[in-house]
Amino acid sequence: MSAPAGPIAALAPLASPLPASPNGSPFTDLQWAILMSLMDAVVPRIVRASAAAPGSLDYTVADAEYAFLSTQAGASAHASDAETLDAYLAEQPSDSAEFQDLLMRQVVFYVTEEQIKGLKFVLAALSTRAGALLLTGYTRTLNTLDAQARSAVLKGWQTHYLSPLRVLYNSITSLAKINFLRTSKLFPAITGYSAVPTGYEPGPTFDYKFLQFEAAAEPATLEFDVVIVGSGVGGGASAKNLAEAGFSVLVVDKAYYHPPDRLPMNEAAGYTHLFENGGFDASYDGSLTFIAGSNWGGGGSINWSASLQPQSYVRHEWAQDRKLPLFETAEFQDALDRVCDRMGVSTEHIEHSHGNQVLLEGARKLGYEAKAVPQNTGGHTHSCGRCGLGCGAGEKQGPNVCWLPDAARAGAQFMEGYSVERVLFENRGGKKTAVGVKGVWTKDGVNREVVVKAQRVIVSAGSLNSPVLLLNSGLKNKHIGRNLYMHPANMVSAFFTKDVRPWEGAILTTVCTSFENLDGHGHGAKMEATCMVPTLSLAQLNWTSGPDWKLLAAKYRHMNTYASFSRDRDPGRIFANPKRVEYTPSAFDRRHTLIGLLEMMKILLVGGAAEIHPHLAGAPPFIVDPSAERSPANPEFAEWLRKVEAVGNAPPGVACGSAHQMGSCRMSATEGMGVVDPEGRVWETRGLYVADASVFPSASGVNPMVTNLAISDVISRRVAAGLKKERGERL
Q1: Between the CA of residue 426 and those of 46, 432, 471, 531, 703, what are the distances in Å?
Q2: pLDDT value at position 73?
Q3: pLDDT of residue 132
Q4: Contact, 37 vs 149, CB < 8 A?
Q5: Residues pairing with 276 in the sheet
Q6: What's 482-531 look like in SS3?
Q7: Fewer CB atoms near the end CB (10 Å): N or C, the chain?
Q8: Calpha distance 420→409 (Å, rounded)
Q9: Distances in Å between the alpha carbon of 233 and those of 122, 225, 310, 343, 454?
């Protein structure tokens, strides 16, 4: 390990530039103008009537209303001078080249061809008088309407009888809020938010020696005992065990390494460089949005340090109902303890942030069960609220800090920027036998086909990619890609009178478990605090109008956000060619998520919130009367809860969120029930294994990192034992 050079600590992480902008646009100039006019409707320029130019399309309000808006924004803001407040209220997306560049990148790089066609169809219709009349009620094109009229059109789409327009409303409002928060020049000044942690100093960097190749027409060929596809927690633990067992190991990943002196990234760079599909993933019907890590270290490099072991009822289900006895054995518990010990998992060094303190204290007052969540921070008191965009301190023991350096010290080698296209097979003794992988390595403009030959192939590409690789490799098992569990979540935000600076402090250090087993079979909801970077909090708030949302954003430093997620009973499926996720949270699972959300609102009431805002479209906020009793029995609060429950969380009006994916290559006792056997070997093959969260027999019910590590630890140790036995070596 090498420490950062120089006698003075860095003031900020080094910049991570975005890739080159798209070359060309899929839209006509008029279509783009209409799209930007929708963005401006969500986050409009707000002007006082006395200052509005004749014929202005801005969001014009009476002088008295403008004074009220300015006063309200300034009351909770970090900067409250009139000039800054005026500039903030005047800021709009179409004036920002950065906003437009980011939006174009998202549409071109991350939106599917089918989705682009659908968006172009709507924009083309809006550019005609007939289409505009049908979709907006006006005979003029949308970009010629004033901001109030465009806002009214959007609100009409929110409850439109055509489901695609309701989905479009969700997409437009979400993109506008996200990109405004990522590119606004005034939002940081108003709120005091900084992407750089207080007292930032980068941690030590491990000196990875990645394989390099020169440009050439012929493929490069490598040979190893084991090739591992994916550098996340499953791949990292497997690499460590197999390298320490004396085997030659190569870990490959399509993504790239980002050292601590470039972390945490700002949101625009972070979601581009550290997440799958730029952080813009959704199920096919739009009923679930989800994020997953894609970087050297995978999800373990950008998760929130939660290190919970699977609970007894989950282990019992897997061992007894699924006929997989491993999960109630000392071997599995030893693996859980071993991986936690290596990461220094404990609750001893936690300093709870304001948001986590509210959850603990509010739950206590209601008699609910809440506890500290163990952290994988290696014995450090780690209070960085931005670890979801990479850990600059290098204290979080993710794969890039812990497991992969261990593997390197034991002799493992690494290749970043290598996109595996398929697993290679040979017929040996009448059995389909994995003999390596084939893919393309990309770095600094050089592309080279690389073939890696190996005696064992371990796929650890995660629940969204491992089944796709198996399918693209020609495997036919009907269970590949099925049984995808997502822990669907709904969220709620609260504003407090005190200045809480929610982006500071540890992210997720508490959990309420009173409602985790609502059906008596291990299905229910848990409630946790969430990462408070703006995209994951402010951007999720309900949008009712541009002025209202800008006022809420100005109060960001007084805000905390929480999630209720369910251990889902009913899974979805992932397909390849084209890759897509089909997952609609069932009424059963949504009900559990909603129950958890309603209970979380009670916790917030008794925990001191001044305002409670459920992230459910159509659900009003609750403004707490300071003179009223802070009790769920308060008649006004109880009536409001009934209204929120009646609004519900059904799609397409409400989309659930997810940060956990599991089960798409599930482990099974028999070949007809899953993808891998109890050893982690893919049923229809020899020499091919899966070691990641995709092998979970069902949803874990807790943040899946530790369960993933323990299962991968067991699988890789068994792979090592099998290789040694095959070679006649002592076990």
Answers
A1: 66, 6, 17, 46, 38
A2: 84
A3: 93
A4: no
A5: none
A6: CCEECCCEEEEEEECCCCCCCCECCCCCEEECCCCCCCCCCCCEEEEECC
A7: C
A8: 25
A9: 42, 20, 16, 12, 21
Q: What is the DSSP string of 590-601?
A: HHHHHHHHHHHH
Which stretches in the chain have pLDDT values below 50? 1-9
- Give the tokens for residue 186: 């005034």
Bridge partner residues of 459 (DSSP): 229, 690
Overall residue count recorded for the chain in this entry? 731
Burial classification of residue 83, based on how many CB atoms lie within 10 Å of its CB (0-12 exposed, 13-18 middle, 19 or more buried):
exposed
- Looking at 684-730, which runs of residues are DSSP E strands? 688-690
CA distance 135 to 162: 10
DSSP string over 623-660:
E--TTS--STT-HHHHHHHHHHHHH---TTTS-EEES-
What is the model's pLDDT at position 640?
98
Residue 370's φ and ψ, nearest 5 degrees, are: -140, 150
* H/E stretch holding 719: helix 705-727
Identify residue 13 by its one-letter amino acid code.
P
pLDDT single digits (tens) 171-184: 999 999 999 999 99
Check residue 5 and give its pLDDT.
43
CA nearest to 466, candidates 658, 690, 682: 690
Residue bearing tokens 């799609």: 651
Report the 3 state secondary structure along 118-173.
HHHHHHHHHCCHHHHHHHHCCCCCHHHCCHHHHHHHHHHHHCCCCHHHHHHHHHHH
Say how far apart CA 461 and CA 712 lie, in whole Å. 12
Chain center to CA of 99: 21
DSSP state of 50: G
Listed residue (725, 711, 718) closest to 314, CA to CA: 711
* Residue 523 Ramachandran class (φ > 0 left, ψ -120 to 50 alpha, else beta): beta
User: Which H helix or E strand runs over 450?
Assistant: strand 446-459
The predicted structure's pLDDT at residue 731 = 63
pLDDT for the residue numbered 518: 98
Antiparallel, parallel or unpaired: β 288-290 and 656-658: parallel
The pLDDT of residue 79 is: 78
Extents of the domains making up the chain: 29-191
Element containing residue 66 per DSSP (H, E): helix 63-75
Q: Which two three-digit tokens encode residue 1?
A: 């390990």
CA 310/CA 703 separation, integer angstroms:
9
**Lookup: tokens for 570:** 């009913």
The pair of structure tokens assigned to 259 is 């050292």
Its sign, for the CA torsion 624, 627, 632, 637, is: negative
